[in-house]
Amino acid sequence: MPTLSDQIVFSLVALAMVLTPGPNTIYFISLSGAALGFVFCMLCAAFGITAFVMTLPLAYDALRLAGAYYLLYLARQVLRPGGRAPFQLRNLQTDSPRRLFLLGHFTKLLNPNAALLYLSLLPQFIDPSRGSVLIQRC
After folding, report:
1. Could you tell me the CA-to-CA distances from 104 to 3, 40, 93, 107, 133 in Å, in that order?
2. 112-121 and 31-47 helices, crossing angle to 10°
3. What are the tens digits of pLDDT across the range 67-109?
4. What is the pLDDT of residues 10-53, one digit of tens each?
């Protein structure tokens, strides 16, 4: 069982991650997609897949380049003729829940910082003597 101080630190870090604004603030409904991306990164860190990706330069570069491409795509939307700043008031077309979910999901999946965060944060809360990582709880 984690100590009370471990639970407090973990809760504070989780709260800070939830309250930190980012691209998902614009599409609040995409939070479920973003949460799935976080869960994916957490499971990758728990099973050591993230460590594999970080040690294999080609896999890390592919993830990094996909994230950079996505950011360039967003920048192009703003900079193209007739494009508008992301926070400029305007009438928006209604996006489907599926599109919003996927937008939030891919925003998190293509963010190598999220993978590095989980790789550095999660292991300190795992106790190998308590059995499988998936059944451990705070």
Report:
1. 34, 13, 17, 5, 26
2. 50
3. 888 888 878 887 887 776 666 666 778 888 888 888 878 877 7
4. 888 877 776 766 655 555 556 677 778 788 877 877 777 777 77
pLDDT of amino acid 1? 65
- For 72-90, the DSSP string reads HHHHHHHHSTT---TTS--
- How many angstroms separate the CA atoms of 30 and 6, rounded? 30
SS3 89: coil
Is the distance from CB of 97 to CB of 31 less than 8 angstroms? no
Distance CA 28, CA 23 (A): 9
Identify the band that residue 138 occupies on the pLDDT scale cut at 50, 70 and 90.
low
Residues 6 or more apart whose Cβ sits within 8 Å of residue 109: 37, 40, 41
Residue 88 has what DSSP assignment? S
Residue with tokens 């939030």: 104
